[in-house]
Amino acid sequence: MDATNQANELVIVEGNPPPAGIVVQTVRTLDGTRLRCAVSPSQLDATRGTVILLQGRNEAIEKYFETISDLNRRGYIVVTFDWRGQGGSGRLLRGSNLGHVRHVGQYVGDLECVIQDIVLPDCRGPYAILAHSMGALVALRASARLTNIVERMVLCAPLIAFKRRRMGTRAIHRLAKAARLVGLGRMAVPMRFVPARDMTVANNVLTSDPRRFARNRDLVAAAPQLFLGKPTVSWLAAVTGAMIRLDDSDEIARLAVPTLMICAGGDAVVGTASAERLAWRMRSGSSLTIPLARHELLQEADHYREPLLEAFEAFTATALPLPENAGTKPEAPDDLSIDAADLAIVDDESAVQDIEGLAVQDGRG
């Protein structure tokens, strides 16, 4: 493991300060892929454990500075990393900005590498996972291997199925797999794609918060090398294959790690109903939906985002308790305090505008 503490490895833009004490590290996977990782310490006198923060597709460490800082102030150490092929990690297609992977097992290998090389030797337990979108899919695929390591998993807007697709997941998978078999795996998926520069708060499907939307767009403009364009056919075949395996296999019913899925009621990217059904099949799983919130819950407006953070803290409290000598814990604003009535599971199809095909925009997980 090569460790550094160089701030210039992180891209800093106005309005997005890095977490205090964050350290950038590099690890290499078994197949030699370089992963950019970051460790950020608890800001309390004592730590309650470590959160492994798993990003979505087309994201980077910098996009989660605010969330990392929020978790640090609550007493958690945070470890996060850029998946292979995106962010500051090694690209899989030379000279291309397409999002590519051969199979989801490669992402599982990335997670296992970070756990073995950074989390277990360097970060105090107990451990919990907080994952967004594609990161949640990877966490579920890796769940059997995480049983004796991770105490809790909280999965935000999990990528269990695409939203309102013209074809079903199985049909998409068959087409993508066939295209890959005839040598088209590195081709971009023919789909609608909106560059970040062309998005507005009104027309984007990721967040309704003007400040966080502008911050993320500024980040893409300042560091385009961290972000991706369309996914490849191989990526699409890989993730749809993982979705089908979760749907068909009984392994999800045997998952022993207590898991909470937090869905976005206004999600136009992933299928909320599919996540709720999957949670129902899990022996130790449950789900809740935050009404009207868009896909990127951790980038959403405070009245959506704060309940998520409160739910995460409450769900992990028994496994990652706040030590008595930890110091003062920040409190959520009074009007944002979590209440069970605020987290009702809703059928929000009428609240979501349809989108064409499998639109994967800049910065979408």
UniProtKB/TrEMBL annotation:
Hydrolase in keyword set: yes
Signal peptide: none
All copies of domain Serine aminopeptidase S33, residue ranges: 47-302
SUPFAM superfamilies linked: alpha/beta-Hydrolases
Keywords: Hydrolase
Keyword field contains tRNA processing: no
Pfam families for the chain: Hydrolase_4
Full protein name: Alpha/beta fold hydrolase
GO molecular function, a single term: hydrolase activity
PANTHER family: PHOSPHOLIPASE-RELATED (PTHR11614)
Organism in which the protein naturally occurs: Aurantimonas aggregata
